Amino acid sequence: MNMAVTIDPRPSYFGDRMIVTGSYTAGETSIDLSDMLASIDFAGINPAEAQTAVATSDGTSVDSLVLVDACTVSGTTITVHTPVDSLDADGAGAGPPVAGETKAGTFLAIGRRN
């Protein structure tokens, strides 16, 4: 997929490291920073909204968990992952797991600059 990513125009530098910030659109999953960074030491995302609440039960009570997207790093690419939603269409929790769409948000990466 081709991700709609906006890189903030003024990255910060310290030594041979660079801090890159920006935003990404909903529904996409990959942020490629290979044009700016040789490697990524840290990456974080801040989704604009949470995923759908997931109902859990221990047999005596039902709790609602609100899950948010997370990210992983491989080389110079940040991959945005959505949690798996176990609710069926009516919210009863009996349906098969269905992955939601990633939400839009912002990101921050610290890495070795090219």
Blueprint (SSEs and pairs):
Blueprint: E1 5-7, E2 12-14, E3 17-24, E4 30-32, E5 37-47, E6 53-57, E7 62-66, E8 70-74, E9 77-81, E10 84-85, E11 98-99, E12 105-113
Antiparallel strand pairs: 1-3, 2-3, 3-12, 4-9, 5-12, 6-7, 8-9, 10-11
Q: Can I get a quick summary?
A:
The chain is mainly β and 114 residues long. The chain has a domain at 5-50 and 69-84 and 100-113. It has strands at 5-7, 12-14, 17-24, 30-32, 37-47, 53-57, 62-66, 70-74, 77-81, 84-85, 98-99, 105-113.
Strand content: over 45%
Structural class by sheet pairing and helices: mainly beta
The portion of residues assigned to helices is: under 10%
Characterize the biggest β-sheet.
Answer: 5 strands, antiparallel
Distance between the termini: 25 Å
Taken in chain order, the helices and strands follow as EEEEEEEEEEEE
* β-strand number: 12
Q: Would you tell me the overall average pLDDT?
A: 81
Our count of helices gives: 0
Q: Compute the gyration radius: what is it?
A: 17 Å
What's the shape? Answer: elongated
Low-confidence blocks of residues? none
Main attributes?
single chain, 54% strand, 114 residues, mainly beta, five-stranded antiparallel sheet
Description:
A hairpin with a 2-residue loop joins strand 8 (70-74) and strand 9. This protein has a domain at 5-50 and 69-84 and 100-113. It is 0% helix and 54% strand. The strands form 4 sheets. Strands 1, 2, 3, 5 and 12 form a 5-stranded antiparallel beta sheet that branches. It has a 3-stranded antiparallel beta sheet with strand order 4-9-8, with no helix packed on it. It has a two-stranded antiparallel ribbon with strand order 6-7. The chain starts with a strand and ends with a strand. With 114 residues, the chain is an all-beta fold. It has strands spanning 5-7, 12-14, 17-24, 30-32, 37-47, 53-57, 62-66, 70-74, 77-81, 84-85, 98-99, 105-113.
